[in-house]
Design goal:
Elements lengths: L1 H10 L10 H18 L1 H35 L2 H33 L2 H15 L2 H4 L2 H17 L3 H30 L15 H31 L1 H20 L4 H11 L2 H7 L7 H7 L1 H29 L5 H42 L21 E9 L9 E9 L3 E6 L5 H8 L7 E6 L2 E2 L5 H5 L2 E4 L10 H6 L6 H10 L30 H15 L3 E5 L7 H9 L1 H5 L3 E5 L11 E6 L2 E6 L1 H6 L4 H16 L1
Helix pairs in contact: 2-3, 2-15, 3-4, 3-8, 3-15, 7-10, 7-15, 8-15, 9-14, 9-15, 13-14, 14-15, 19-20
Length: 638
């Protein structure tokens, strides 16, 4: 039952399976090719040139081989035979070397295919606002794109291989047509009785019609079979997503290792893996493969063999009628089969492009996500001489897709060099308040003003530079210690060391023999070190100090620190923040005592504001209740 509910949720907004027009297929495919050309033009050039040369290679051999056989069967002139043999050997050698070199070039470019596609999507993600990345619809678009690529190579991936097939097919058709044209022109000798019917225009048109019909039928049946990948994309994507999570994330993510080992008997049970695997014999795609999908594919192969039979019969009858010699039989049979194969592959490639259109819709829906926050153009720096004042004016906010407000009618002003503490119970709106302040989201209602001007009028990226933030769920990267502090590959060593010391992180030679160059974790370097939660939090604090922004915001900055380390951090907090505007979110109310201003949130509303002494004296208030609860706890513990 739960699986069916998940499937229904997953299908909301999933691939639009409405009619795909030829115009849309061309437009989206060309747009996809432009993406590849922009990112790696050598990839398309290598596929084009290699495809042209590879497609032409066999036809030179076919023509020379036919001439050689004719000469062996009829003329038998040693000099002519020698010329044909040398020409055949030389042509084969030259084309083989050329194809080998071009294929290597193409394979080198294709090896970058996955990384290049990742780069396209990563650049889009890095240019998107947090509100969009955090949006459920965007997350599903991202997931569907990866699942489409992984399960069937659909999307941008498919364009490269379809382009390769189209180039080879077109060149094959042109070359085979040139070698085949005389087959229908050369007449059967007049004294060959009933075989002269092969000269009749009606019979020739009939043969061409039969060959054409069979040629078009085979790839159309194959395309029909491939369409089941589109039809069952929903189940495949969700199943692949769940299956990849179980066998990928749960197995490889060290942060989940403890929980997986304690509870693995249920999470990783064979029944779950079997139930949600879209590629088991019980899945819809598997049943289709045994049924209609497999039937269409088998019928496609059978029809192709019919064409081969018709081609052999027609060529042999004309040869029997004296229209051409033995060598031409080799030429015409090979060329006619190649012509049919080229046409079939061309039709199949266009069919794949049509099926791929549904997946390209998802790709470009993601790539076309608008920049909703980067619309302002006012410079932030022009007000730096006056200092900064931020005002929340009747701000309300609810997360996308949610009915309840996370914040409701919040109005508050705070000034430069002010120390503000934000407190409240879990879910009271504290972190949402900070996300709005940093403009990770825009208010649903009301305004946030910087020096009296709506922050939406400022340049988004300049505004973001005003804030150094340590969030609860901050992340450190598997790079050097100094690079983690600087958030850059270029590090000011003296500044980084100073910030680390200010945050309480001391670089000990026995622990960090390479100093700031010591890599964190072992993802890229076996000499990397694993750090504790408290150490990580100090590095995150140092990172916030290194940025040296006018506002420093700390969301539970000492949650992972022991009491002694916590005392040291708060003892140095005034020195650490200097003349910056500092905002602290904390559940430990003892940390609020050095702040001049404390705001208390409850159920999304700002319900109290004042100094620690004033709020503690308000016994009916929420702050006093929170303070008393913690004071009793510490007293009981002591």
């Amino acid at each position: 039952m739960k699986f069916r509910i998940r499937m229904r949720e997953w299908k909301k907004g999933i691939l639009n399976k409405s009619h795909v027009s030829f115009r849309e297929t061309v437009q989206l495919s060309l747009r996809g090719f432009r993406v590849w050309w922009r990112e790696n033009p050598r990839l398309l050039l290598s596929v084009l040139i290699c495809g042209v040369v590879s497609a032409l290679t066999p036809y030179a051999d076919i023509w020379l081989l036919a001439r050689l056989i004719d000469e062996v069967a009829v003329g038998r002139d040693p000099h002519t035979l020698t010329v044909y043999v040398l020409a055949l050997m030389g042509t084969s050698a030259i084309f083989s070397l050329l194809c080998a070199g071009l294929t290597r070039w193409k394979n080198v470019q294709l090896s970058c295919l996955w990384h290049t596609q990742n780069k396209v999507f990563l650049e889009k993600l890095l240019s998107m606002e947090f509100a969009d990345i955090d949006d459920r619809h965007v997350q599903e678009l991202r997931s569907r794109i990866w699942q489409n690529t992984d399960s069937g190579g659909w999307g941008l991936y498919k364009l490269i291989y379809s382009f390769d097939a189209i180039v080879r097919s077109v060149m094959s058709i042109i070359s085979a047509s040139l070698l085949t044209a005389s087959l229908f022109i050369l007449p059967v000798a007049a004294d060959r009785g009933w075989l002269t019917i092969l000269n009749h225009p009606v019979f020739i048109l009939l043969i061409i019609a039969v060959m054409s019909g069979v040629t078009f039928a085979a790839p159309l049946l194959s395309v029909k079979a491939s369409s089941y990948w589109v039809k069952y994309a929903d189940e495949n994507q969700l199943g692949n997503r769940l299956f990849g999570f179980w066998l990928g994330d749960l197995g490889n993510d060290s942060s989940k290792a403890l929980d997986v080992r304690i509870y693995r008997q249920d999470i990783l049970s064979r029944n779950n893996l079997k139930k949600y695997n879209p590629f088991t014999p019980a899945s819809k795609l598997a049943r289709a493969s045994r049924g209609a999908m497999g039937g269409y594919q088998a019928l496609s192969g059978a029809v192709s063999q019919i064409f081969a039979g018709v081609a052999y019969i027609f060529v042999c009858l004309k040869a029997l009628g004296g229209a051409f010699g033995l060598g031409s039989i080799v030429q015409y049979v090979s060329a006619v089969l190649a012509l049919s194969d080229g046409l079939s592959r061309l039709i199949e490639a266009f069919g794949d492009l049509r099926n791929n259109t549904s997946f390209l819709r998802t790709v470009f829906e993601f790539l076309d996500m608008p920049d909703k926050m980067g619309q302002g153009d006012m410079a932030v720096g022009q007000y730096s001489g006056k200092g900064y004042e931020i005002e929340f004016r009747n701000v309300s906010f609810k997360y996308p897709g949610q009915e309840n407000y996370a914040l409701r009618n919040v109005s508050v002003i705070f000034h430069a060099e002010q120390r503000m503490a934000v407190v409240g119970m879990n879910g009271s709106g504290k972190t949402t308040f900070i996300k709005l302040l940093c403009r990770l989201y825009d208010p649903t209602e009301g305004q946030i003003l910087l020096n009296g001007i709506d922050i939406r009028n400022y340049n988004y990226y300049e505004y973001m530079q005003l804030f150094s933030v340590v969030f609860q769920d901050f992340k450190l990267l598997s790079f050097g210690l100094g690079q983690n502090v600087a958030c850059s590959m270029n590090v000011d060593s003296d500044k980084a060391d100073q910030c680390l010391r200010a945050a309480g992180f001391v670089i000990r030679p026995d622990r960090l023999p390479h100093g700031l160059s010591t890599p964190l974790y072992k993802n890229f370097d076996e000499k990397g070190i694993d750090i504790s939660g408290g150490e990580a939090q100090k590095i995150a604090l140092a990172r916030a100090l290194y940025k040296d922004a006018p506002f420093i915001i700390l969301d539970e900055p000492t949650a992972a620190l022991d009491p002694v380390a916590e005392f040291e951090v708060y003892d140095k907090m005034n020195d650490m923040t200097g003349r910056k505007t500092a905002v602290f979110i904390s559940h430990r109310l003892s940390s609020c005592r050095f702040c001049q201003d404390i705001v208390v949130f409850h159920e999304g509303r700002l319900i109290q504001r004042g100094s620690h002494d004033a709020l503690v004296s308000d016994r009916p208030g929420m702050y006093y209740r929170l303070w008393s609860a913690q004071a009793q706890y510490y007293e009981a513990k002591s």
